[in-house]
Amino acid sequence: MSADLLSYGAFFLTMALTYAVICLGLNVQWGQTGLFNVGIAGFVAIGAYASALLTTPDDAVRFGGFGLPIIVGWIGGALVTGLVSFLIGALTIRLRADYLAIATFGVAVVVQLAALNLEGITGGPFGIGFIPRPFADYAGNPLVFGLANLGVLVVIVLLLYLMLERLARSPWGRVLRAIREDEQAALALGKSATRFRLQAFAIGGGIMGLAGAVQAHFIGFIAPDNYVPMLTFQVWAMLIVGGSGNNKGAILGAVLVWGIWAMSAAAVSGLFPPGQQARAAALQIVMIGVALCAILLLRPRGLLGEERVVSRHIGARDDGSKDGQTSDAKNS
Amino acid sequence: MNPQALMDGLIAGSMIGLGAVGVTLTYSILRFANFAHGEFIAWGAYFAFALAGALGMLSGSLAAPIGPFSFGWGLVIATLVAVVLNGGLALLVDALLFGRLRSHKSTIIIMVMASFGAALTLRSLLEFIFTAQPRYFSNALQIAMPLGGGIRATPDQLLSLAVAAMLVVAVHLLLSRTPIGRAMRAVSENPQLAGVAGIDTRKVIRIVWLLGAALACIAGVSAGLLVQIRPQMGLDLLLPLFAAAILGGIGSVPGAMLAGLVVGLSEAFAVQLIGAEWRSAVAFVILVLVLLLRPQGLFGRAAQ
């Protein structure tokens, strides 16, 4: 009994941490740089499909199945998604702020469409199955299997966290925040706002692709239905609840919102009769939508809020005055 | 090439155009891309659907078809009331959400995000109330009349084209010839200066919501009459709406309508050439092309 509970706990946390990875990617785009991505589901899907194509065994009815190692799939998924993000960013970032939002929304629509219709590559509506799972040898023992997978996710989240924290404190991260807060001042210091934004958007997109790839291998199969606007919405809710601009907040928000989501799904399926389940699921989305709007209105900084970050060289003697930021921004 | 694609494209395009006029007005005056606008189309259709159903139950004669059309006076009355209700819904969303964000001096992108949240809430609420099952105003089948040149159209289709054309002319005249239209253009140019000149910006914002919601409601009823009513109908139209609003040039009413027709026609021809399953990608391709070649749109000014 307790082993069942433990392996469910491991499953739950692993799932939540895959969302945490998406959230960390979104935090680079939105939290650090102020770029609004409405097509998260599309970017996650690109990573998932790319990795699935690279790693599944050869399949006669569709393109690929290259049977490569899982790690190659993950890196490939991240790179492909990063490239797509770069192209979309290059197209829209120099224009009005919300054109990027509209374009990313379009990406999600087109990716969904491609996943459904390019049956020779994506398997169409039925998706791709038999995606190799890490530690598949231990699949007979759910507890060991679950904990091993959880371990992998914890390592990924930890590595990403450390890397992103380092980036945020680097001259590069300071330039990003400078651009977000006062573009004119950053331009006056000779920083190309478009270039830095584009880099941030591509890195964030790459992380989302990685998350999609990892999630695909954890679940074992993917289908277009997994990548609907609801996914985008959940990730936004996670980042806003946790506190945008804060990497710890992104992880905390992911675990918290995923927990609320799983619990409310259980409550809904318990409270409503079987015939009304689809209706009840809609009500669940209404609740999370209202919650997101309420947080935007009442506590826009989220639970943790943004940390004040200054150069590590002056952090000890200075409480974060502006001149520290500007003088260091020159070094980047 | 099948000439019928021309007719199909014009009809789909006129619905996209009506929605895009609303998008372009909110965009130029409230200054954010409203992702919830598609939901006003869906809500308008469902308002009319529920009211027409109720009226039909009250009196059978209201449901009897008028002349060559598939619907009765019940739907006409229901649509007029639905226009008012939909305007009320838009004002309610503004009072609860966007108005408060404006008074918090929130950034554009927070408004966009809030509209995204509102869209999901409104859409799921429809699904909760009416379920995802498609609905129809009437189950009667209409015979398409030959119009010459190999083109056929049903009376309902011709009527919705005519209504769309009249509405766009009316909105254009409202904006260009009346005091309130002048006030709207002034707020769109410079809200602070308009306020200093004694224009009531809050009134202008209310008019924009009412106008956008009314056009969305008509577009929704047309879509429901000619295709079907589903909770997802607004979401499916959202990308074409944005593509049309940007292609037409933000703030330009004739531009939005013309661009709506361009998007509708391109979709119809793409369906002929590469198949119906790729229809939704057409709006994205148009969007990408506009952003690449002429980001200010056909009739827009370069972005500040």
Labels describing this entry:
heterodimer; A: mainly alpha; ABC transporter involved in vitamin B12 uptake, BtuC; 71% helix; globular; disordered C terminus; B: 304 residues; two-stranded antiparallel sheet; 74% helix; 2% strand
Present the secondary structure layout.
The complex is a heterodimer of chains A (332) and B (304).
Chain A: H1 2-32, H2 40-55, H3 70-92, H4 97-117, H5 119-122, H6 142-169, H7 171-181, H8 183-188, H9 193-219, H10 229-242, H11 247-271, H12 277-298, H13 322-329
Chain B: H1 4-30, H2 37-58, H3 60-63, H4 73-103, H5 108-130, E1 145-148, E2 151-153, H6 155-177, H7 179-189, H8 191-196, H9 201-226, H10 233-248, H11 253-274, H12 279-293
Helix pairs in contact in B: 1-6, 1-9, 1-10, 1-11, 2-4, 2-5, 2-9, 2-10, 4-5, 4-9, 6-7, 6-9, 7-9, 10-11, 10-12, 11-12
Structure overview:
The complex is a heterodimer of chains A (332) and B (304). With 332 residues, chain A is an all-alpha fold. Chain A has a single domain, classed as ABC transporter involved in vitamin B12 uptake, BtuC (Orthogonal Bundle), CATH 1.10.3470. Chain A has helices spanning 2-32, 40-55, 70-92, 97-117, 119-122, 142-169, 171-181, 183-188, 193-219, 229-242, 247-271, 277-298, 322-329. In chain A, helix 2 (40-55) runs parallel beside helix 4, helix 7 (171-181) packs across helix 9 and helix 7 (171-181) packs across helix 13 (322-329). Chain A is globular. Residues 316-332 of chain A have low confidence and may be disordered. Chain B contains twelve helices and two strands, in the order H-H-H-H-H-E-E-H-H-H-H-H-H-H. The mean pLDDT of chain B is 89. Chain B has one domain (4-138, 153-293): ABC transporter involved in vitamin B12 uptake, BtuC (Orthogonal Bundle). A two-stranded antiparallel sheet of chain B has the order 1-2. In chain B, helix 2 (37-58) crosses helix 10, helix 4 (73-103) runs antiparallel to helix 5 and helix 4 crosses helix 9. Chain B starts with a helix and ends in an 11-residue tail after the last helix. Chain B is mainly alpha-helical. The chains are: A mainly alpha (332), B mainly alpha (304). At the A-B interface, helix 4, helix 10 and helix 12 of A face helix 4, helix 5, helix 10 and helix 12 of B.
